[in-house]
Amino acid sequence: MWYTLRINLLLFIVLLSWVCSSVTASVSYDGRAIIINGRRRILFSGSIHYPRSTPEMWPDLIQKAKDGGLDVIQTYVFWNGHEPSPGNYYFEGRYDLVRFIKLVHEAGLFVHLRIGPYICAEWNFGGFPVWLKYVPGIAFRTDNKPFKVAMRGFTEKIVNMMKSEKLFESQGGPIIMSQIENEFGPVEWEIGAPGKAYTKWAAKMAVGLNTGVPWIMCKQEDAPDPIIDTCNGFYCEGFTPNKNYKPKMWTEAWTGWYTEFGGSVPYRPVEDLAYSVARFLQNNGSFVNYYMYHGGTNFGRTGGGFIATSYDYDAPIDEYGLLREPKWGHLRDLHKAIKQCEPALVSSYATLTWLGKNLEAHVFKSESGPCAAFLSNYDPESSAKVTFENVQYDLPPWSVSILPDCKNVVFNTARIKANGSPMKMTPVSDGALSWESYNEETVSADDGDTLAMDGLWEQVNVTRDASDYLWYLTNVNIEADEGFLKNGQDPVLTVMSAGHALLVFINGQLSGTVYGGLDHPKLTYSGSVKLGAGINKISLLSVAVGLPNVGVHFETWNAGVLGPVTMKGLNEGTRDLTSQKWAYKVGLKGEALSLHTVSGSSSVEWVEGSLLAQKQPLTWYKTTFNAPEGNDPLALDMNSMGKGLVWINGENIGRHWPGYTAHGSCSSCSYAGIYNEKKCRSNCGEASQRWYHVPQSWLNPTGNLLVVFEEWGGDPTGISLVRRTQTN
Ligand SMILES: *[C@@H]1O[C@H](CO)[C@@H](O)[C@H](O)[C@H]1NC(C)=O
Ligand SMILES: *[C@@H]1O[C@H](CO)[C@@H](O)[C@H](O)[C@H]1NC(C)=O
């Protein structure tokens, strides 16, 4: 007894010295898996995007990911957040990338850093800074010199920053992999030769940065060596990398889907998610990243075109940082089961045996090593009894059972053991808010501080995305002998806009509101308008709702009123206003005055009580409130409002748009059968997004300033602060 202990101790010391001498860390790969410090690994990873939560939330999110059985945190790098103007960098607050990575390291997890710098991500402009569009001669994501110079510049900036902080695994840090570009394969397919040349260039550029860890390219079948091509999707079991010496990796296992304003809210049953992951692993897969593991919030104006402020994604950790059960717990149980199989998985490939129609066994067994098996039933309706190694097993429909010793089932993807009650929103009891209002004035072409130009200009060209709002202003002269002045048949104004929303004011009065959607950003306003003899002021407030984040050369897509703009029903017939003189004003007066801040808000006269504006367009509202007791996550219930922006203590919590009702059908959905993002939906006929996350760390104990800008007109007395808590 004593003797064996001594032997073990000796062995331990020998092992320890071996571990210490191999501290010159390394990451490589072979056809089976990623190899970290000489060991093949089956890795679970989860996407958590640092700017979609607050630094105060990061340690808890990372710990919950670790407790959920993850080995890796994956994030994109958000170029437009880091370089707001050329050469002017920002890495503070929610954009403190180094702090985020160090927190992951402290928790003992690895990092997969997706530099892009194109990231899509339902993020404004796909992560590109808007100024990049105005670099002379530029075309995004193709064999274009100015673009390549800018892309190399930012990629180098990030890689050098990681190197100087010693964050690559090859330096003892947590980053085991990076990504260059993002889902470029489909674009390359469309644009052909310059796309192929660009792929080769991007690969060479990235590899040349010598990070000491592998690079991947997702959805890129022709990823040049040594870059690993990887799969994104709801299912990836059928994917194979382009070389047999590259491991089979799933960079985005979609846990749900994003919500768009005007869309219903997607969700994905965890039984199907677990099934897709088990099928991937039983087919020789070795790396799974959940996209998203925590989706979070598109704070401020960071959401891509028509993307909702909530980026919850039906992820295992919800928008507010709380566990979504049973999703989180069921995946944790899956990860535990797979970790038990890891010794068998990393030392062998799958051998397939047919057990019947839609029934399979995948067995991992090396000559002398351990054995692990997956028993699968692909039938979406019927359960099955199968015999494997002389033992009978029951398989529910559309499920996989996991047997880490080839005998005992420790997990079935359709049998949920995890529990936990759903979350609910409860109004904070002392929450009655007392509001004041201020009317944003309508601007007209004759106002002093406008910009006069001939014709109609593209919106982003004028605003450079400094604001969602751009006024298009012109005058229409009506002669006293116009027929409509006598017969009362009002002329019809028609305005064609490239998007995304529009408010039409005639002589300062709202005449109509129109808006597009994710699949139809363009819009047309057409309505009869009240005009009088003399000069009539036409003020069009064009509103952008995030810039596009995906599509071939999305940088060339327009927004704003590009015309034609016509006035029909005059003596002359139809008057074309398109190329006459227009004046422009970027942004709102309230934005220029910083009404969302304490100092700015005191620069105008607010009214309250019986004078409080109700259901009036273009209205600013403000109130103050004390932070509620406790640490429950908080949100604002905005259901009584239409569309606009919300700030707390000067921080923009995002665009609100509860006035946009979710279209589509929300019939009940079974976990079994092929999932797609249209299959399981909620909120039909209600607001796409009613609640807006208020991070705890943005609050002071007392006197918090809440400012709302409302475009359409709403009832601020219906706004309430709510807590997110468990139902019992
Ligand atoms: C797993 O890999 C082995 C070895 O390459 C191969 O024979 C087998 O067909 C693969 N299984 C699946 C399901 O891809
Ligand atoms: C964009 O602005 C430039 C001047 O800054 C102008 O020459 C150009 O015509 C504008 N383009 C559009 C589409 O409005």
TrEMBL record:
Residues 469-521, 618-704 form the Beta-galactosidase galactose-binding domain. The keyword Hydrolase applies. The keyword Hydrolase applies. Residues 34-337 form the Glycoside hydrolase 35 catalytic domain. It is an enzyme of class 3 (hydrolase). Keywords: Glycosidase, Hydrolase, Signal. InterPro entries: BetaGal_gal-bd (IPR048913), Galactose-bd-like_sf (IPR008979), GH (IPR017853), GHD (IPR041392), Gly_Hdrlase_35_cat (IPR031330), Glyco_hydro_35_CS (IPR019801), Glycoside_Hdrlase_35 (IPR001944). It catalyses: Hydrolysis of terminal non-reducing beta-D-galactose residues in beta-D-galactosides. One of its GO terms (biological process) is carbohydrate metabolic process. GO terms for molecular function: beta-galactosidase activity. Residues 360-416 form the Beta-galactosidase beta-sandwich domain. PANTHER family: BETA-GALACTOSIDASE RELATED. Belongs to the glycosyl hydrolase 35 family. This is Beta-galactosidase. The lineage of its organism: Eukaryota, Viridiplantae, Streptophyta, Embryophyta, Tracheophyta.
